[in-house]
Amino acid sequence: MPKLIIDNIAVEVADGVTVLEAAQSVDIPIPHFCWHPALGKAGACRVCAVRMMEGPVKGIQMSCMLPAQDGMVVSTTDPEAVTMRRNVIEWLMINHPHDCPVCDEGGECQLQDYTIAGGHGIRRYDGKKRTHINQDLGPYIQHEMNRCIQCYRCVRFYQEYAGGTDFGVMGSAGRVYFGRFREGQLESPFSGNLVDICPTGVFTDKTARFRARYWDYDMAPSVCPGCSLGCNTTPVARYRELLKSIARRNEAVNSWFICDRGRFANGEVNDPQRPRTPLIDGVESSRNEALKALLFRIAQTEERYGTGSIAIVGSSRLSLEAALLLPTLAELTSSGALCYFASEEESGRTLPLFQLLTAGRSASQRDVRESDCIVVYGCDPLQDAPMLALAIRQAWRNGATVYTVGDGISLPCDVTTVDRLDAVPLSDAKNPVLIRSAADIPDQLATTLHQHDHLKLAVLFPAANSYGASKLALKHLGVSFEQAISSGDIKGVISVEADIPQKLLEGIPFVAALDWRMTETVQAAQIFFPTTAWVEMKGTFINHEGRVQRFNKVMNPGVPIRGLDPAVHPPHIHRTAPPGGEPQPAWQILAAVIEGLGGELITEPFTGEWERLRGLDAECEGVIINDI
Amino acid sequence: MIPTELKTKLQSRVSAAITNREAAVDVMKALQAHYGWLTDEAVVEAAELLGLSPLQVEELATFYEMIYRRPVGRSVIHVCDSISCWAMGGESLLSHLSGLLGIKPGETTTDGTFTLLPCCCLGNCGEAPAVMIGDTICGRVTVENAAGLIERERNR
């Protein structure tokens, strides 16, 4: 544990920590471009210069390259160090274009910040600048090589961290070029991280190009709903349109990055076809009318078909708040079935694995990254949960052995293929992790878990809140909707963000749906309530390991201003909500229905054993609920 | 398409290497000798031989200044422009050669015989200024003897 002094502040850090990180730990910022917490050092940019006053090394040193040692006395404010940094920045800016006003990175550009902070305000160089020809890197990433300051972050991420082989650095000296052999879409499923990691505007998000400046963004800490991993994101919106998503650091989960599938998934939120108005038999109506109609038809269905004829159906993509209210709704409607899964298949591949996740058993993405032996068994992480494949690669880079049971699974690292699970030497491993999705051989898995106490399990569930849905389904003896209708008694359905296929709804006279997507169920419904998408509400998901994570509201719901007919925008009629602003969080609609049915008005969905989740901070690592 | 014989030879060169990348320069030089320069096709072929992606071969190819990713003449004249040769008159030598050949640095003579390129240190500082003509290093090159060296190479 070396002890050193930085700018007169005594600091003690762990072995191997660099002077730059030691300074950061006491809130002394040192400018840096090439150094990145997830990628380490490269010593390429020379901008983190500090002066070593006393200790084993003296004089100007690169703080990112220097491990902290006992007796070091460091000055970040020494005139020599300050001058060095200012000169390096001026030199990095020589070839950088003066295009900040038209650059998408402007306002969120590390180079811009450090140039100003470093004191290089006026350019002295008036010679010709080095220029490059840009490449078309596909529909997601915009390339602008002239802005490059050669920090090598992009290539270190793309090739070393993510295992991509189609993007790299070419040339040498003043001619280095970061790009592809030939123009074309980047192949890596993690390519969007180039946007986040580039300290300036070489790689920007093409899908949000020229749309907004950083200070105009609506943004909030959120969680990706794309799969069950629950990677942390910061979605960015402006004028009621979800523009882009940025990875948000959570060391227990996704570390610094997210996958492209999660990042470039704005379409559904902005979809012009998205249902935004309450409907009664296909006719637009107000929320109150729809609520009245719903209560009437619930009563009518019960009267006609008797108690137990209504099924309440939630889903594994429904937020925990709404999922928690379903049992109350089921009780008040004397429903015949409370379902958290539409199909028997989904229920079948979720519940048995959920039950294996006993306390301390589930593996986070961090556990995977720190594992020394990983077994991928009956699932394809690159397809089902890409970030887990990236975590596996980090374990492999740190020396872990990666086993796949059976052929046909490709991962961004070397793998050892074995025929059977027994063939993996789990007993020799220190922190083994088994990764699994479909549950066709749960018995063998249970036996293996029983034999190896230290084996952790990472389950790839179908959706963002599968864990929460499973927990509630088991507690409230829920059945799948498919099973519920097999008796033939179900004559009414209240579907809450559930994806019930049309064929399961045949012969059911009454269907009500709450959703923010245009689904088959919504199309089949006689009564419809629009709900908010995850970015339009505060909510909660429980990820694959049982980690409860809060996401905050990024934007108000409403039809994006972009694409509106200028003849009708702005609307020249008085209204209190923006056009398309009717959607409400599903749990609030459910609370109104519950109140209408004679229940208590619910203002706080977290009660009883869930009460501890009330104040959960969206910016913490989340809390593990794994006490079954 | 490279001939099967060359392909087999290069395959055995790659398999003899501890890591594939180690054989990359040899493979690129062999393909360059075959095609005259490292064509796009050759980059893809080298990638296949080495088990790398074309981009990864391109990274190496563009790093080394004696791997030519553009067509060059039969012989390339490299004129050192690093510090020792520069101090000993390398700059005037380059412009003299440019005049002799009637081309600017970076260009190829119209008959396709010579390409003139400045290059970094040839490791021959003791004999500065140094020039490499084809595969031959020449030291203490002067404005006076340069024409003779070019003629010797032309008639080779």
Question: Would you give an account of this structure?
Answer:
The complex is a heterodimer of chains A (628) and B (156). Chain A has 19 helices and 28 strands. With 628 residues, chain A is α/β, with parallel strands linked by helices. Among the domains of chain A are: 90 residues, Ubiquitin-like (UB roll); 177 residues, 3-Layer(aba) Sandwich (Rossmann fold); 108 residues, Dimethylsulfoxide Reductase, domain 2. In chain A, helix 9 packs parallel to helix 19 and helix 10 crosses helix 15. Chain B has two domains: 60 residues, Arc Repressor Mutant, subunit A; 80 residues, Glutaredoxin. Helix content of chain B is 48%, strand content 12%. Chain B has seven helices and four strands. In chain B, strands 2-1-3-4 form a four-stranded mixed β-sheet, with helices on one face. In chain B, strand 3 and strand 4 form a beta hairpin. The longest helix of chain B has 13 residues. Chain B is elongated and about 50 Å long. The interface between A and B is small, with 12 and 11 residues.
